[in-house]
Amino acid sequence: MTATLPFTPTPTPTPTRHANSEPGTRCAAVRDAAVREPTAHGAQHRPASRPELSDREVEVLIAWLACDSKREVTERLFLADSTVSTYIQRVRSKYDAVGRPARTKVRLLVRAVEDGYIGLDDL
After folding, report:
1. What number does CATH give the domain 25-122?
2. Long-range Cβ contact pairs of 38-42 (< 8 A, separation 24 or more)
């Protein structure tokens, strides 16, 4: 004779949500990642909202990111201080326009690498 135990189903755990997550956010992030393409400079992904920078803007941006001061950039590229500032402001404005602000030098470096404008070997 076998004894039977009463069957009690185990409760299914309720999925937990992180405090800052909204429904669909993860799906949107996955979709965004799928749209990205590899870049020429070795960056992993290129976001779909990549601003169009001119060759001169990229040149000044690389010099500015590689130097410790705008003064060094002016000496290297034979530009006035105000011209360097104007180019950097234009680059920042273009990133703002596509919804990807870059208000610090580090954030601007990250954006430029993400978008394939520069590689770490350019610095």
Report:
1. 1.10.10.10
2. 39/115, 39/116, 40/116, 41/113, 41/116, 41/117, 41/118, 41/119, 41/121, 41/122, 42/119, 42/120, 42/121
The larger pLDDT score, comparing residue 37 to residue 108, is at 108
Report pLDDT digits (tens) over 27-56.
444 444 434 444 444 445 555 689 999 999
The residue extents of the domains of the chain are: 25-122
Tell me the one-letter amino acid at 17: R
The label of the residue with tokens 């405090």 reads 19
